[in-house]
Write a structure and sequence with these properties.
2 copies of one chain form a homodimer. Chain A has 2 domains: 172 residues, HUPs (Rossmann fold), CATH 3.40.50; 105 residues, Pantoate-beta-alanine ligase, C-terminal domain (Pantoate--beta-alanine Ligase, Chain: A,domain 2). The first copy, chain A, is 33% helix and 20% strand. Chain A has 9 helices and 10 strands. Chain A is globular, with a radius of gyration of 19 Å. The two termini of chain A are 32 Å apart. In chain A, 48% of the residues are buried. Chains A and B meet through strand 5, helix 6 and helix 7 of A and strand 5, helix 6 and helix 7 of B. Strand 5 of chain A pairs antiparallel with strand 5 of chain B.
C-alpha cells in the first residue's frame, strides 16, 4: 500500500494500473475512518483490481461557521486502516494541491442538491460535486463507492456522473451502524457521554416509520409524524423529509407513498449535527440491521 | 469517416481506438463549418491518430433572444468537409441526447467567464464549459483544439480543464481570416451586402492597436482609443477590452502594458454580433495574416 500526496503522481500510478488491464476503484473519504468507510473499501475491492482510498477534508463542502477546522484528522490511523482493508493506494493531498491558486471552477447540481441538507448547507453539494469530479478525473476509476448514510450526496454523485457522461459506475453501500443502531459517522466522536443516548433519536424515528410502512401505512403525513416524534430528544431539528428516493424531491403531506420512500433527517445533539436515512421498501430496519 | 449520433456509440468507438494504443483528438464545433474549423481538424490531426469533430448547436450557450433558432445548420456539407479534412468520426448528437430529461448539472468557471462576452452573455460560458466537459468525458481525447477567434472561450476551457484535472491537452489554433482580414465566423453569413464592408471595423481597430504596440505604445488607454476609433462604422459596441491574455481580466486605463496584451472586442453590424481579438506581442497582424 502506497501513500500518495500529489495528484500527478496518483494519475501516473493509476494510468499504469489501467495500462496493464486492471480495474481501478475509488473510495472518496474525508478520513477519520470508521467501519463504515472500511466497508466501502471492501465493496470496491469486490468490483476492482486496485482500490484508491482518498482522504481529504474538502474545504469547499464546509460552509461558514461549520466544523472545517475541528473536523477530526487521524491520518496515520486512517492509512493503517486502509492498508488492512486492502486499499492499494491512499491519496491524501493538501488543500493547495486540490485547489491551487487561481482555481475557480465549480460543478453545480440543480434540484437534487436543493432540498434536505441543501437547504441548511447551501454550498455543500457544490463542494462535494467539485471535489469528486476532480478525484474522478485524476484516478479514472471504473467504479466509485459511496455510503448510503450520506444519501443525498450519493444521489448528487449519480446525477452529475450521468449528466456529465463520466465513465464511472457509482455504487451506494449500506449504512453501517453501532449495535444500538446509531449510524456510524466521523462526527459521532464529537458526542459527549450524556449526548450519546439522545443521538439514537434519529434511528428511532426511522425505525418507527419503517415499522409502520411494513405494516402497510402509506400516508406521507402519518409516516412523517411517526419519524419526527422521537426527535423530541434532540436539541434542534434541521429537517425530517419524506422524498422520492431517486430525485430526493420532498413529497407533500397529502401524498400517498408508492413502493419505495426515502425518509431522511438531520438533527443536532449538542453541537453535533447528525444525519440518517432509510429507504422504506428497500433498506433493512435501521436498528435490526445493526444487531 | 463515420457519422455517429449516440454518445454511447461514440464512447465505444473511442474506447476501441484508445485500446489499440492510438491517440484521439477532439475538435468541438457548432457546425456551419468554414476554413477556420477545418484548420482545427488539421491541427488535431498533427497531434492525434484519430480526430473526432463534433457538430452540435449547444442550446445552453445561447441566451434568451439570441440566435439559437436561426443559427445556420449545414450538416451534410459539414460532414463532407470533415471527411475531406481527415476527421475519423463526426459526432452529431441531438439536443436530447446531450441534455436528456432530468439533467441539471452545470460546470461554472468564475472570473475567467465574467468579463468581456460574459458581461453581455451571462450564461454563455457556463453552457460552453458544460457541453465541452460532456464531450471530453464521452470522447476521452488526449488533445482538443479550439480557435483563438473565441479567445475567452479558449481561456475558459483551459481554466476548467486545469481546475478539474481533466487529462486533456488544450490547444488554441490561430484565427483564420478572409483576404481582407475579416475573421471567419459561421455568423458572417448573416451579413448583408451593405454590412459586409462595415464588418471590417473590428480588424481595423485591432490592426491599429497592433501597429501602435509594434511601434512601442504601451499605454492601455491610448491603445484602447486606437482600437475603438474604427468602430464608428458598426451599429453597436458590446465592448472593447484590453486584458491580461492569461486571465482575461480587464486592465484599467491607467495601466501600462507588459510584453503581451489581449485586445478583444464584440460589436454589432446590423443584427449580427461579431467578435475578434489579437494578442499584442504574440499574434500576427490581424490583416496581413489573412493576406
Amino acid at each position: 500500500m502506497d501513500l500518495i500526496t500529489e495528484p500527478a503522481a496518483l494519475r501516473r500510478a493509476c494510468d499504469e494500473v489501467r495500462a496493464r488491464g486492471a480495474r481501478v476503484g475509488l473510495v472518496p473519504t474525508m478520513g477519520a475512518l470508521h467501519r463504515g468507510h472500511l466497508s466501502l473499501v471492501e465493496v470496491a475491492r469486490a468490483r476492482a483490481d486496485l482500490v484508491v482510498a482518498s482522504i481529504f477534508v474538502n474545504p469547499t463542502q464546509f460552509g461558514p461557521g461549520e466544523d472545517l477546522e475541528r473536523y477530526p484528522r487521524t491520518l496515520d490511523a486512517d492509512v493503517a486502516a486502509c492498508a488492512e482493508a486492502g486499499a492499494g493506494y491512499v491519496f491524501a493531498p493538501t488543500a493547495k494541491a486540490m485547489y491551487p491558486a487561481g482555481e475557480e471552477t465549480r460543478v453545480n447540481v440543480g434540484a437534487t442538491a436543493a432540498d434536505l441538507c441543501g437547504v441548511h448547507r447551501p454550498t455543500h453539494f457544490e463542494g462535494v460535486a467539485t471535489i469528486v469530479t476532480k478525484l474522478f478525473n485524476i484516478v479514472g476509476p471504473c467504479v466509485a463507492v459511496f455510503g448510503r448514510k450520506d444519501y443525498q450526496q450519493l444521489r448528487v454523485v449519480h446525477r452529475f456522473v450521468r449528466d456529465l457522461f463520466l465513465p464511472v459506475e457509482v455504487v451506494g453501500a449500506p449504512t453501517v451502524r453501532e449495535p444500538d443502531g446509531l449510524a456510524l459517522s466521523s462526527r459521532n466522536r464529537y458526542l459527549r457521554d450524556e449526548e450519546r443516548p439522545r443521538a439514537l433519536a434519529l434511528r428511532k424515528g426511522l425505525g418507527a416509520a419503517w415499522e409502520a410502512f411494513a405494516a402497510g401505512e402509506r400516508s406521507v403525513s402519518h409516516l412523517r409524524a411517526l419519524a419526527t416524534e422521537p426527535l423530541s430528544d434532540v436539541d434542534r431539528i434541521d429537517y425530517v423529509t419524506l422524498a422520492d428516493p431517486e430525485t430526493v424531491r420532498p413529497l407533500p403531506d397529502g401524498h400517498v407513498a408508492g413502493e419505495r420512500l426515502l425518509v431522511a433527517m438531520a438533527a443536532w445533539v449538542g453541537k453535533t449535527r447528525l444525519i440518517d436515512n432509510v429507504v422504506l421498501g428497500e433498506d433493512d430496519h435501521p436498528h435490526r440491521q445493526g444487531d
